[in-house]
């Protein structure tokens, strides 16, 4: 469908309100023994995930009836491929952390237009941290501007990554001499890179769009570089909504890390 006459800033305001609604619902279930099911891929889903997905789908599509919908907790519909703009969201990113009572779960919401994210929000209600960005308008944390790290050297850099990500097989040019750190939510990891709290983030597993769409625009608008695991541009609202990993860092550090990903 044709793109409605709304700006990225207007979409961002809508996403911020929706993220806060998601946070209110999540907190009603957090540390309250929510009902849990196992999905076909053996990943868990809770009644909070389902409730947030249902409410946000109703509210967001009512506000933007011409937009498509892609969510981790909604059965995919190929009709979204015909829409110029699409909501891409993970009702709760870090569901296992949510179940375990950890406060680092997040709500990740984005709008993509013709394959590029134009607005995105990552909200951590338990930490009262709301990251937001819109195309060409910069990125913020709780309303204050944020910038990605200016780190250029691998030495001394802090890279958010799982232990398997740092195996030799992923780095033909040698494992980079960085300090590995970890946080449960992928969206939160990307937000922390946008904030400049860490210098980069890497994952080389196939990565769902709903986990990375909001984080991608946060990083781009904060001055960082974000690509797939092989240095290619990320595109969204694809038929199979997965990226081939994610590599993000400050410009100089990203180039150095990418160089180690390639064979001579």
TrEMBL record:
CDD domains: CysQ (cd01638). Keywords: Magnesium, Metal-binding. GO terms for molecular function: inositol monophosphate 1-phosphatase activity; metal ion binding. Mg(2+) 1 binds at residues 72, 92, 211. It comes from the Bacteria. Signal peptide: none annotated. SUPFAM superfamilies: Carbohydrate phosphatase. Mg(2+) 2 binds at residues 90, 93. GO terms for biological process: inositol metabolic process; phosphatidylinositol phosphate biosynthetic process; signal transduction. Its cofactor is Mg(2+). InterPro entries: Inositol_monophosphatase-like, Inositol_monophosphatase_CS. PANTHER family: INOSITOL MONOPHOSPHATASE, INOSITOL-1-MONOPHOSPHATASE-RELATED. Belongs to the inositol monophosphatase superfamily. This is Inositol monophosphatase family protein. It comes from Roseicyclus elongatus DSM 19469.
């Amino acid at each position: 469908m044709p793109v409605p006459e709304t700006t990225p800033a207007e979409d961002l305001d809508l996403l911020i309100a929706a993220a806060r609604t998601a946070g209110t619902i999540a907190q009603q279930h957090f540390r309250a023994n929510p009902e849990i099911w196992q999905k076909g891929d053996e990943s868990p889903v809770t009644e909070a995930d389902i409730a947030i997905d249902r409410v946000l789908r109703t509210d967001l599509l009512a506000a933007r009836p011409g937009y498509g919908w892609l969510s981790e907790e909604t059965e995919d519909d190929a009709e979204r491929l015909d829409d110029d703009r699409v909501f891409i969201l993970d009702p709760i990113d870090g569901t296992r952390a949510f179940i375990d009572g950890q406060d680092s779960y997040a709500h990740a919401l984005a709008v993509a237009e013709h394959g590029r994210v134009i607005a995105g929000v990552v909200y951590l209600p338990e930490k009262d941290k709301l990251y937001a960005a819109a195309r060409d308008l910069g990125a913020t944390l709780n309303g204050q501007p944020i910038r990605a790290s200016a780190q250029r050297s691998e030495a001394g850099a802090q890279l958010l990554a799982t232990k398997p990500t740092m195996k030799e097989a992923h780095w033909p040019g040698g494992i980079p001499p960085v300090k590995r750190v970890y946080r449960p939510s992928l969206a939160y990891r990307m937000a922390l890179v946008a904030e400049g709290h860490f210098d980069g983030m890497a994952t080389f597993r196939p990565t769902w769009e709903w986990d990375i769409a909001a984080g991608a625009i946060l990083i781009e608008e904060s001055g960082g570089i974000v690509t797939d695991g092989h240095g290619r541009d990320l595109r969204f609202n694809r038929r199979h909504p997965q990226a081939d990993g994610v590599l993000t860092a400050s410009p100089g550090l990203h180039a150095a890390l990418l160089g180690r990903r390639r064979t001579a």
